[in-house]
Write a structure and sequence with these properties.
This protein is of the alpha+beta class. It folds into 2 domains: 66 residues, Winged helix-like DNA-binding domain superfamily/Winged helix DNA-binding domain (Arc Repressor Mutant, subunit A, Orthogonal Bundle), CATH 1.10.10.10; 118 residues, Orthogonal Bundle (Arc Repressor Mutant, subunit A). The chain has 8 helices and 9 strands. The strands form 3 sheets. Strands 6-8-7-9 form a 4-stranded antiparallel sheet. It has a 3-stranded antiparallel sheet with strand order 1-2-3, with no helix packed on it. The chain has a two-stranded antiparallel ribbon with strand order 4-5. The relative contact order is 0.10.
Length: 242
Amino acid sequence: MANVAEMRVIVGDRDIGATASGERREVPRTEELRILEALLFAAEEPLDEKALAARLPVGTDVRTLLLRLQEEYAPRGVNLVRVGGKWSLRTAGDLAWLLTRESVVTKKLSRAAIETLAIVAYHQPVTRAEIEEIRGVTTSKGTLDVLLETGWVRLRGRRKAPGRPVTYGTTETFLSHFGLDALSDLPGLDELKGAGLLDNALPVGFGVPLPSDDPALREDEEPLEPERLDLGLAPAAEQAEE
């Protein structure tokens, strides 16, 4: 039969293929693929393709090798995933429950913090005043301090406006924690409605903004001046939001 589909299994360090006719053939695993696998296994944090290419022979097609390795690991207990534009070996999602006993929850975010995080994610770069305008309530300094402590939110720059307010944006840690490859992977309007997070009866013209992954400052932003920033936590006497 023409164009017979090929079945493939992985045995040891060899890729063995078999056609429907029973013929078996071996496709040697390339040395580049083995090196790539070793680099990802030993890495303490996700690696981007540029960093991987620097450790591989010149001319290696890193993206093709990564996709092949991702396919090999797909049915296994460890998967190769891409988050924040970088690659990492992680426990398969359906086996995550096995590790729950080793997970330690140190702090539960308040509703105010969750709302603020969502606004920063979708509207970045955004200032505290802009966050308050969107939420409709005052945002305490403590709420933003908590998000800065988690490493999910960062100080981007200062708005070129009276008072030069600080602008906030999300980090690679935010993408990694929520399993996102890019900010464009954030849930859209239909997904938010489907999850029950938005009312179906929304105003005409209502939309969900699409943030940019470009870390560069925008025309209405200017660089931070570290020596003038107050990164301390909010005073203990400051009342937290409900």
